[in-house]
């Protein structure tokens, strides 16, 4: 199986932490492509990861716009 090349350009923020794994928003490039925004869990030294979601700038801005309209009080 081919090796995935990952370079985290910036750790933007931690969303949660559990058992040494941090769910983070990062700015990351995959296989030498242009960096994108990425949400996934990483182990402490970023050598292992879970499945996640990768967004370009426009998608992340749209997500921010959507989240700003959500009434979170109606959800448990």
From TrEMBL:
Gene3D superfamilies attached to this UniProt entry: 2.30.31.70
UniProt cross-references to InterPro entries, sorted A to Z: PC4_C
Organism domain of life: Bacteria
Domain Transcriptional coactivator p15 (PC4) C-terminal: 19-66
Gene Ontology molecular function: any one: DNA binding
UniProt-listed GO biological process terms: regulation of DNA-templated transcription
Protein's name according to its UniProt entry: Transcriptional coactivator p15 (PC4) C-terminal domain-containing protein
Organism, as annotated: Allisonella histaminiformans
């Amino acid at each position: 199986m081919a090796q995935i090349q990952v370079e985290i350009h910036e750790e933007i923020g931690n969303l949660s932490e559990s058992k040494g794994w941090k769910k983070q928003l990062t700015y990351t490039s995959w296989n030498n492509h242009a960096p994108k925004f990425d949400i996934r869990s990483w182990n402490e030294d970023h050598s292992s990861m879970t499945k996640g979601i990768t967004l370009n700038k426009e998608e992340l801005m749209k997500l921010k716009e959507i989240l700003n309209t959500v009434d979170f009080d109606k959800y448990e």
